[in-house]
Amino acid sequence: MSVPDPKTRLDRRAFLKTLGSAGATATFVAAAAPQSAQAATAESLRPDIAAGLTGGKWEKAVALSTAGPGGNLNWKPGDSLKFLPPEKIPRGKAADTLATLPKAKLLTIYERMQLSRKWETTFKDLFVGGKDGLYGSFHPYIGEEAIAAGVMTALNDDDFIASTHRGHGHLIAKGGDLNKMSAEIFFKETGYNKAYGGSMHITDMSKGIMGMNGIVGAGPYLAAGAAMGALVRGTKQVAVVFHGDGAANSPYFFSAVRSATNYKLPVIFVIENNFQMIGVAMSTVTPTKYISDYVKGLDIPATPIDGNDVSAVYTMAKAAVDRARAGQGPSVIEAITFRWLDHSGFAGARVGVDGAAGLPYRSDEEVRAWMSRDPIARYKALLLDRKLVSPGELDKIDADAQKTVDDSITFARNSKNPDPATTALNVYANGAVAATQFFNRQGLAG
Ligand SMILES: Cc1ncc(C[n+]2csc(CCOP(=O)(O)OP(=O)(O)O)c2C)c(N)n1
Questions:
Q1: What is d(CA 369, CA 373) in angstroms, rounded to the nearest whole number?
Q2: Sign of CA dihedral 104, 309, 159, 242
Q3: Is 213 in the pocket of ligand 1 (CB under 6 A)?
Q4: Average pLDDT of the residues in 141-156
Q5: Best residue for ligand 1 mutational test, from 139, 166, 216, 270 (most atoms within 8 Å of Cβ)
Q6: Is residue 271 classed as helix, strand or coil in its secondary structure?
Q7: What's the Cα-to-Cα distance from 98 to each of 130, 223, 312, rounded to whole Å?
Q8: Nearest-angstrom CA–CA distance, 239 and 211
Q9: How far is ligand 1, taken at its centre, from the CA of residue 71, in Å?
Q10: C-alpha closest to that of 266 among 322, 312, 342
Q11: Cα 4 to chain centroid, rounded
């Protein structure tokens, strides 16, 4: 069996063949990358995978996450993330463009990024601290806030968004209601879904929020459909779908982008490339260096940008929105970013500490490097460096944002649990009939 040489560009076919013959289904595998910080021993992998990858001559193995971002071996050692400038203060044309926005808008961007960060951080502390007995899925967006904030700044209130399982930041950036969202996480009757949805089903059509969505890859068609509706009605509304790098590998993404290009739909595909799909190494599923390369050939704008720089996100989103409203069709924006915490829940997180450590599919060094590119700190530095706002104004927003978050949690705690009699209501099927049928099948009908 031939073994791909990980020191050079990966031979994907050989690699996947090797993986297949080793019976591996995914996750992180091993390669020799001398710059690695997090070494995994051969013993820590399934022996058949280890033997398959090394031809039995195992010497030293390291997690793939260090060979390229997220373990994407289409990156060669020494490649740099040119779209992630090392500077702490974003500069250049995008920053100049953002700086022309009215001050109130600049402050709203900052406020919504902080609300998102503080709301999720507070919930992280509540989940980890365990006092409120919280349970259920919670996919944190911490570290990715500039994407939602930048895109939403380019949208009108009546534009549509389709969100993901990682959707709290999208809702907050579009002006959603924190009280109702907190109450939903507490499963109280005052929640967005009256306690029956939880984090992944929050929807607010009054704000054009077509819903968070637990089905990976479902968003592209929802947004394309909303865009088609807007086109037919002639309303000039635009639809945006946010989704991850993993979802971009779904057939729905390809199909929706192709159809949207064909019909020149006013839709924007925003790929939040955080290089992580739960714990799957990108090398096993991603055949290109950039996800946006997937749509080459359609002749639509498809650009990787620094997703941790709100000025880059806003400027690119504004161009895409203008193009969509002018009837020129869709765009793809690949916002490069990183999530600080675990995929879902809070493994490796501690109360009062940012980021999660010790997760098996990434190195702590990688996490620290990305945390040093904190999108909020960088936006704050930009605002202050250009004297667009005063430090006192930002301090007040910080304090007010924390109070709003805390108030929403008090609201949730003080709300009632749902009445069990409402269980079968608010479902698409006729709830009462469906419940009767269910109880009959179970032999429980009274
Ligand atoms: C259709 C479907 N397949 C699989 C899953 C399980 N799943 C939940 S999140 C996830 C990874 C998604 O990765 P990505 O799209 O990159 O988003 P991220 O979590 O990184 O934000 C998977 C496979 C699912 N929810 N839906």
A1: 7
A2: negative
A3: no
A4: 98
A5: 216
A6: strand
A7: 41, 26, 8
A8: 13
A9: 17
A10: 322
A11: 31
Paired sense of beta strands 160-162 and 239-244, if any: parallel
Beta-carbon count within 10 A of 439 CB: 13
Q: What is the pLDDT of residues 214-253, one digit of tens each?
A: 999 999 999 999 999 999 999 999 999 999 999 999 999 9
Q: Which residues on adjacent β-strands are paired with residue 242?
A: 270
DSSP 26: S
Gap between the Cα atoms of 9 and 55, Å rounded: 19
What's the CA gap between 412 and 5, in Å, rounded?
54
Which pair of structure tokens corresponds to residue 62? 């390291």
CA atoms within 13 A on the CB side of 193: 18
pTM of the model: 0.83
Tokens encoding 3 = 């073994």
Element (H, E) at 368: helix 364-371
Residue 38 contacts residue 364 (beta carbons within 8 Å): yes
Query: Is residue 366 within 8 Å of 84, Cβ to Cβ?
Result: no
C-alpha of residue 321 to centroid of ligand 1, in Å: 27
As to burial, measured by CB atoms within 10 angstroms (0-12 exposed, 13-18 middle, 19+ buried), residue 298 is middle
Distance CA 241, CA 150 (A): 14
The tokens for 345 are 């829940």
Q: Positive or negative CA dihedral for 175, 306, 344, 409? A: negative
Strands 302-306 and 239-244: unpaired
Q: Which residue in the block uniquely carries the two structure tokens 């869709």?
A: 330
Burial class (CB in 10 A: 0-12, 13-18, 19+), 145: buried
Yes or no: say if 68 and 281 are a contact pair by the CB < 8 Å rule.
no
Residue type, 293: D
Query: How far apart (Å, rounded) are the C-alpha atoms in residues 215 and 126?
Result: 26
- Tokens 């080459």 label which residue? 296
What is the C-alpha to C-alpha distance for residues 270 and 301, in angstroms, rounded to an integer? 12
Looking at this protein, which amino acid is placed at residue 324? A
Could you tell me the two tokens for 364? 């702590």
Q: In this model, does residue 418 exceed pLDDT 90? A: yes
Residue 256 CA to residue 269 CA, distance in Å, equals: 9
Both tokens assigned to 301: 């704008």
Q: What angle do CA 129, 132, 133 make, to 5 degrees?
A: 90
Ligand 1 centroid–CA 214 distance in Å is: 8
43-95, pLDDT tens digit by residue? Answer: 333 333 333 333 333 322 333 344 456 666 676 655 655 545 556 888 889 99
DSSP-based three-state secondary structure for 239: strand
Which is the closest atom of ligand 1 to the Cα of 248? Answer: 15
Distance from the alpha carbon of residue 93 to the mean position of ligand 1, in angstroms: 34
